[in-house]
Structures
1.
Amino acid sequence: EDIVFNKGPFIERNDLANDDGVTMNVNVIGAGEAGILTRSAGTFQAGHIGALFELTHPRVNRQTNGTKTGTQTGIIGEVIEVLGDYTFSVTTSNYVGTVRLQRSTNDFASSTNVKIFTSGTQTFSATETTEDVQYRINVTVHTSGDISASLLVNTSTVEGSATSVGVIKTPLDIKGSFNFNTHGNWGATIVLERNEDDAGWEPFRTYVSVLTNGVGDRNVQFEGVEEEDNVRYRMNVTVYNGGTVEADLSATSSTQSGIVRINGVLTNTTAEIIVVSAVSQTTDTKRWAEGAWSSLRGYPSAVTFFEERVVYGFTDSDQQAIWLSKTGKFENFEAGINDDNSFA
């Protein structure tokens, strides 16, 4: 049976090894989605089929924006998926027209209007609690003036409060370091829950506060590191006795990395891919790395075990290289700074 490697190894990141300005982007971001990987220069070859590529972006809030001039109508920016807190803004004031924030659950076969602006600088904020929902900004009437608008989705932090049992706001995608905090006086049980690869929600940490004469006996400040891909966390109040549970959950790593696998080569600069672990953005990035093993680069010709690691070595393209897996996880070649991480 073939072993499928979804976590590397990778050769040195292109911007560090070559600094040639070549960028890559994808048109899909969710794990399991099929789409297109595009490079600004260079060549995809048949030997890249089956190869992994890792794309790294700075952690920023998801957004779309743009401008319609004169009497232009239509979509501003692009359709984006929204989950959690978002802000819709029109930033120009001297226009005559109608700007709609529209919501759809079926890729805009049909849609509803969430907010309509018809004049002036405007801002609207709300929270989307349903998953797999798309939003777009649509200028349907435009008589004069420029219309500039934006939609910003907070993908780094979830914060809210509860006075009953239930999930506080929405889940948050987390890879790397994160913080979980509670505030105020409350008598309740709050559970930080974890869901990997949509396998279901499981308790990760459980905290109980007892309320006496309006004063709670604890608050929480927790820092953690999530090493796996495609993981979400949420804050769930499972028992409520009184007070207000105030809580926040934040992803604090400065970058986000996703992995795709090439299934076919379309042109020199485009390839069909499947997303292995979620990519944070569809924008261009110089920070990408090619998988170290493929038909193009060759596969290891030797293997052994050493102190709970599997060790592979010596490909056609690099006959000096060896790769050691993460301790106790023989298919994990994700590099890191911890003692048990993979290294080459």
Note: The CA atoms of residues 202 and 253 lie 23 Å apart.
2.
Amino acid sequence: MDFEYQVNITPEEICELYKIDVHDFLVLVEGKKTIRDEKTILYVIEEYILTLKMNRIKSELTIKYYITVLRKFARFLLLKKSEYKMVDLTEELFFEFTDTCKPRKEEKLTARTFKTYQAIIKNVMDFAHTRRYVSEDLRFKIEKFRGELLPRYLPDELIPQILNQAKQTNWPFLNFALIYFLLGTGCRVSEVANLRICDFQIHEDLIFIRKGKGNRQRYIPMYPQVKKVILDFLARTGVYHWDIRDESYLFSKRCYENREPIMIRNIQRMVTGIYEKIGIKGAYTVHSLRHTFAYNSLSAGMAIYDLQEILGHNSIETTTIYTKRRPIDLKNAVNKYPFPLEKLVAQIMGIGEN
């Protein structure tokens, strides 16, 4: 049996009464799943950047990197001279953008950088949905990157070469100490640049990381040789007695007082310059020092969950990347358990039989 209802209130009045959007109400009533596309990608990017600048969770370095990538994406869109709406942000458009982001001529983005770019753009899409600029989460339009990210470990024979070359630079004691510290702690370059003398807690053999990724803090163990190298460096720069109240920067080109921090980009340039001197530039990055620490720790029998804490990984999945063996290790494993191929072929083909 059908019933007829007489409604004496308009949709506009309902929306005014309950403080909801008329468009959203009509979509709900009509059972449609439409997407509001009035906001352009450029508009949402600018709004997202404003939100990023007020973010207190991500580190300053991360925020700066996000903004750099987003500005690059905005310039790409402006050059196309088309007002792309959020619903136009597809995987094809993203791929077209990344194809223009070649760090050097005829070179594509690395898998790691590509994955980071993708995460940033998908964050913008999530932001648009949260702000109700679109009525549907559009992140499904860009499929999650499935490419494998392989860490780059430094072979054992290269480490002495790198350390010896550090001694030939303009700041030999500083650069030697920096590289030794990176190899012996697995810290990120950004974390090292922010270390203070009081963070290097020699009595507890602990190092306090005050500004890790996402502004997270943690303690990491101090290996005896790392401790010896850093104390030697401090003594050479005028710090003869460790003081827990000393908040001067640990790594600095300045001696004694007024120890100014060394810039992150200067550490990166220094390491890259050393790689170039010994003929391995392009094969490894500054982050390879961190990868090498992780690999050596696991090889020595460290539990992966302990390594996760030391590296400051939020997810164990990130740490498992370092469980992948080096090609030389796989080769040695094969040689250790050889497959009798020659004998098998001889039996099948009759080779060697009289």
Note: The longest helix spans residues 60-79.
3.
Amino acid sequence: MSPAEPRPGLREVEPYAAPQLDVPVRLNTNECPYPLPPAFAEELAQAVRGLALHRYPDREAVELRARLAQAVGHEPEGTWVANGSNEILQQLLLAYGGAGRAVACFEPTYAMHARIAWTTGSEVLREELPPPWRLDAERLVRAAERAAVVFACSPNNPTGNAQDPEVLAEAARRAPGTLFVVDEAYVEFGGRSAAPLVRELPNLAVVRTFSKAFALAGARIGYCLAAPEVVEDLRRVRLPYHLSALTQAAGLVALRHRDEALAILDAVREQRDRISAALPELGVEAFPSEANFVLFRPPRPAAEVWRGLLDRGVLVRDFSTLVPGCLRVTAGTPEEVDRFLDALKEVLA
């Protein structure tokens, strides 16, 4: 008996994976370097003890959506939550992409935009943006002529630059039949949000995460700010009880500690700016960033520099296949940034 065969082309694609290596300084996945304070963990433990885990969770995550909507100034009916922003992206593409529909991505950008489009059976339209990687309305509208969904990432990963919300809004007004998805995973670190425009533009959806600014990468909570009609469509494609009681509890407790989480941002920005200032002194090209990371191009081959840093206990991300010659480093603690800069100086010596 022959084994079952997956869909055509599936085994030609490698699983998505960022290296998870046991090294002293891990600066490759843009995690927050600081945990939330002990009071958060204590409150979460108390909340978990009170959960009725023998029962299904609130299918609609009503309390979490209401508290989140209040925190960000959006209507609860247009606020949606899921297991990380990637699940939000998947649900959006299940609802608005799929067979016979196209999704437009502007590269270099977050690889999961194109990958999730592919997994949902959508045609992927890729367009290369030249440095400084800024979108304009004409380019977006041209993409919308062929695509049911157009992605924009602001601040963009891995380049770090933010897009102009008014440019995105102009494109959404001129192409009302296309859904424009703005990935704002890093917006708390810099740039202007497109969220205030969502009420006016029902074909604009903003996607965010608790993983970065909320220091909750391990909890896997993402959310979407959109028109209520869009959220209704997401409800049609989500899995039953998709957000566990544990995840909802973590989100609610995190929102109660939101001010403490946001207070961490200044420390992260300080280290980001420190990296940006220090790299040129080492003969390294550093690209301006409004996120919690810096894209840089060393004067030696990227793979060689990446290996040299790893040999010294520092893990960064190699993006040379997407942006020639470039690596990306997350803004860590002052001690982690010390280790990174010292190691890079040795590698380049």
Note: The longest strand covers residues 102-107.
